[in-house]
Design a protein that fits this description.
The protein is mostly helical. The protein has one domain. The chain is about 75% helix and about 0% strand. Helix 3 crosses helix 7 and helix 3 packs antiparallel against helix 8. The protein starts with a helix and ends with a helix.
């Protein structure tokens, strides 16, 4: 069980490093904006949702997506609306001379944002199924249902640990950049997030037309 947990932690930590997905971009952007509590809330929500998917992968739930083909496009349609709105908020954000103050509920709302965006991407079950299959192929750990909770929990811990490291790193070095530069970077991130939302929307339209 310990080995399965360590491998799950490693998969989660390393797999979250590339800043190529909407969650990573949101965490990075909010850290640049000195909204550290919000950034950690998004990361925690993502980690919990993806931990559930990693656990389900051990039980072979990827077959569920094949049996119910409507789950993926509908979920991504809802995610598209969330991402488009979020990206637009980045683009329309007015430049300020100082970092915005965070309200008490910022962490809770951000947690729900990270949780919902990740939960609305059920193909993560397939992604984690691939990871579990690779793990089984090495022969290091027997893919047994009894190990699923330890693997999934450790994967979620690994994911959140990376986002925590990312926030700490950005917080340490962000003051080296001019505020105007940070504002421009945030707008670029807004374009990226909207682009992901548009891609999800196109996938939904394609599903309906097909």
């Amino acid at each position: 069980m310990l080995l399965a947990a360590l491998i799950g932690f490693g998969f989660g930590f390393v797999g979250s490093m590339p800043i190529a997905g909407p969650i990573a971009v949101i965490v990075f952007a909010r850290s640049l904006d000195a909204r550290y509590r919000s950034a950690l809330g998004v990361g925690l929500g993502c980690a919990i949702a993806e931990s559930v998917y990693a656990t389900l992968a051990f039980f072979g739930f990827s077959a569920l997506l094949a049996e119910h083909a409507w789950i993926e496009p509908v979920s991504r349609g809802v995610a598209a609306a969330i991402l488009l709105g979020l990206g637009l908020s980045f683009l329309l954000r007015k430049p300020t001379g100082e970092a915005p103050a965070e309200r008490g509920a910022a962490g809770a709302r951000s947690f729900l944002l990270g949780l919902s965006i990740t939960a609305l991407n059920p193909t993560l079950i397939a992604t984690w199924t691939g990871a579990v299959t690779t793990l089984a192929g090495t022969g290091a750990v027997a893919v047994d249902a009894g190990l699923a909770p330890a693997f999934g929990l450790a994967a979620g811990l690994g994911i959140f640990s990376w986002y925590l490291v990312l926030v700490v790193l950005v917080r340490r070095f962000r003051d080296r950049f001019r505020r105007e530069t940070l504002d421009r970077v945030l707008r670029v991130f807004g374009v990226f997030v909207m682009g992901v939302g548009v891609w999800f929307a196109i996938r939904l339209i394609t599903w309906f037309t097909d």
